[in-house]
Amino acid sequence: MPFYGKLLRELRRQEQDALRQERDALKREISMARELIVVQDIAFERQQKKLERAIDENLSLKEDLAEIESRLGGIVGGEEAV
């Protein structure tokens, strides 16, 4: 009977080692996933800022175009815009 007791202890130890390794692997995956989320958040914020700048630039260009069209309309119509 002592042989079976030893065998059972060894099997339990191996099972615990396997579970420990699996747990550690899961912890590493969770850590990597968290890091990825942080990196993606930073990238999203950068893209958001670029978009905001592009929108601002687009609005500015639209205003400039409207002013040019207004001046051209005045010149073509015989009046010079001020």
Structure write-up:
The mean pLDDT is about 90. The chain is rod-shaped, with a radius of gyration of 35 Å. It has about 80 residues and is mainly α. It has one helix spanning about 1-75.
Quick overview:
This protein is mainly alpha-helical and 82 residues long. The chain is built from 1 helix and no strands.
SSE topology:
Layout: H1 2-76
List keywords for this structure.
1 helix, 0% strand, 82 residues, 91% helix
**Approximately how much beta-strand content do the residues carry?**
under 5%
The count of helical stretches stands at 1
Span between termini:
108 Å
Structural class: mainly alpha
Order of helices and strands: H
In round numbers, the mean pLDDT is: 91
Helix content: over 70%
Q: What does the largest sheet look like?
A: none
Using only C-alpha atoms, the radius of gyration works out to: 35 Å
Shape: rod-shaped
Q: Which segments are poorly predicted (pLDDT under 50) over 5 or more consecutive residues? A: none
E-strand count: 0
